[in-house]
Amino acid sequence: MSIYKKRTSKKNVDVNSYNSIQNKIATLKNFMNNSTDIRERRFKVGGKDVDIAIVFIDNLVDGYMVQDHIIKPIMSNSFEWPTNSDYASILETIKDYMLYGDIVDEVYTLDEMSKGILEGKTLLLIEGSSKALLINTQSLPKRSIEEPQTEPAVKGPNEGFIESLKDNLALIRKRLKNPNLYVEIIHMGKQTNNKAALIYIKGTVNNKIATEVRSKLNSVKDYDIVSSEQLMDLMCPKPFSIFPLIQWTERPDKAVSCLLEGKVGVIYDNSRGMLIAPVTLSNLMQSPDDYYENLFIGTAITTIRYLSLLISIFLPAIYIAVTSFHPGMLPTTLLLSITGARVGVPMHAFFEALFMAITLEILQEAGIRLPKVVGQTVSIVGGLVIGQSVVEAGIISPIMVIIISVTAISSFAIPNYSLSLSTRVLRIIFMILAAILGAFGISLGVLYLLGYMCSLRSFGIGFMEPITPYRFKDWKDSIFVAPQFFLKNRPEYLHSSYETKRKGNSKNGK
C-alpha cells in the first residue's frame, strides 16, 4: 500500500523541473516502472547546441513517422532559427514550424506524459524547457473491417464495427454526415486508461435520456474493464434483469438508425460493437432485413419471429402440462399417438424435456467454443447421433425429440443473441411450473412474466413500449413494418426533441 501511495503521489509531478534531459528521462522511466519496451533517442537541434530527446513505446508507434515527421525536420540545418532564442522559443518553433504530426499536445506532468506514451504517441523533451510535446505517431495493431459475425443480413451493407474507436466513429460519420452529431470522449478505468465515446444527435435526442446515460457512464468510469459487454453490464439500470436493457450491435447501419430515432450510443475502445440505449422488446426483435423488404414480407417475417419467441419459451412447458395433467385437451388420435410413442419410456415428461434441453445447450456451447471448421459439424452430427441413440435406447420418446428440435430452431430465429439467452432461462422456469402445477402453473408464470416485463424500464423508457402503454402509431415500426414513407416520424415513446425524421428543417440538421 505504501508503494502505491508513493507512486500515485508522483502523478502530478512536473518532470520538467528536472532540467537535464537525463534526469527527465530517468524520472519518467521510473514512473513507468522501467519497462524494457520504452525507447528513447537523444539528439541536438540543427544549428543549436541544445539537447533534445524523444521517448516512445516501441510496439505502439510507426517508426517511419518518428523518423520522417520528428527526427529529420528537427535535425535539418536548413531551417533558420531566430536569433537569441531561448529554450521555450525553440520548443515553440519546433511545434509550430517543424513537426509533421497531425496532433501535437503540450504536457507538463508525469501522468499526462505516461498516458500519451501508452496511447502510442511520441514524447519530445527539450533541456531547460518547462513543458514537453506529445506527437501523434500511433500505429496500433488492429484488424480490418469485416462482415458482422453475430448479426448477418441477407441484404444491406456488410461492414461491421471493429476494435478501434477511431475507425468505429468513422463508420458512424460515414453514414451520418450531420453537424449535430455529438461525440463526447470519456476516459475509463484507473489502470486500463481506456476511452468510451458517448454519441447522440443534438436537437433530436431526449435530453433526459442523454443526461441519464452520461451520468451512468461517469459513475462507472473508474472500473477497469476490457470490453463493451462488461460496460453494458455495469450500465444496466437493473443488473439482475433477465432481459437485456441495453442493446449491443456490431452493425453501423443499425447503430445509425437508432441514433436517428433519438437514442444514445456508447462505443468502447478496443472492443467491437456499440451499446444503444434505451431499448424495448420490439427493438430486440427487429433485424436490418426488415427494412430491406416490402410491407407484406417484412411484416410476415416479423410475425414469424414473435411466434418463434413464444414457441422457444412455452412449447416444452405446454407439452409437459398437457401430457401430465390435461391429456383430455388433446384430440383422441393425437393423444393415442403420443401415448404410444411414450410406451416404455422410463422418465417423466419433465425429465425427458430437461435432459434434452441440457443436451442441446451443451451441443450449442460446444459448437461455439470449438474452431469454426468443426464447430457446426459437431453440433449437427452430435444432435442427430444423440437424438437417434436416445430414441432407439428407449430413454426419450420420439415426440420429445421433435418438441425440443422445434424449440431450438425457434430460438435461432430470435435476432438478438442476449434475448435468445433469456428465453433459455425462461424455458426451464416454465417447464418446472408446468411439471408442478400444469396449465395453472404456466398461467401464473405468464401473468408474473407480463407484470415483470411491464415494470422494466430502460433509462426511463418502458421495456414493453409501444405495446403497453398502447401507442398504435408506433406499431408501424415495431409490430409491423410499414413502407419507408410512413416512417417519417420518430417513435413517440422516446419523446424526442425533434419528432420528424425526414422533411426536417436545416436548423436541426435534418
Structure description:
This protein is an alpha+beta fold. It has 4 domains: 2-136, no CATH class; 165-279, no CATH class; 293-462, no CATH class; 472-508, no CATH class. Helix content is 46%, strand content 12%. It contains 17 helices and 12 strands. Strands 1-2-4-5-3 form a 5-stranded antiparallel sheet, with helices on both faces. Strands 6-7-9-10-8 form a 5-stranded antiparallel sheet, with helices on both faces. Strands 11-12 form a two-stranded antiparallel ribbon. Pfam families: GerA (PF03323). Belongs to the GerABKA family. This is Spore germination protein. It comes from Acetivibrio mesophilus.
Topology:
Layout: H1 2-8, H2 21-31, E1 38-44, E2 51-57, H3 63-75, H4 87-98, E3 104-107, H5 110-118, E4 121-126, E5 132-136, H6 165-175, E6 181-188, E7 194-201, H7 207-219, H8 228-235, E8 247-249, H9 252-261, E9 264-268, E10 274-277, H10 281-284, H11 295-324, H12 332-341, H13 349-369, H14 372-392, H15 398-412, H16 417-437, H17 439-455, E11 457-458, E12 461-462
Keywords: Membrane, Transmembrane, Transmembrane helix
Transmembrane segments: 306-325, 345-363, 370-389, 395-414, 426-450
Family: Belongs to the GerABKA family.
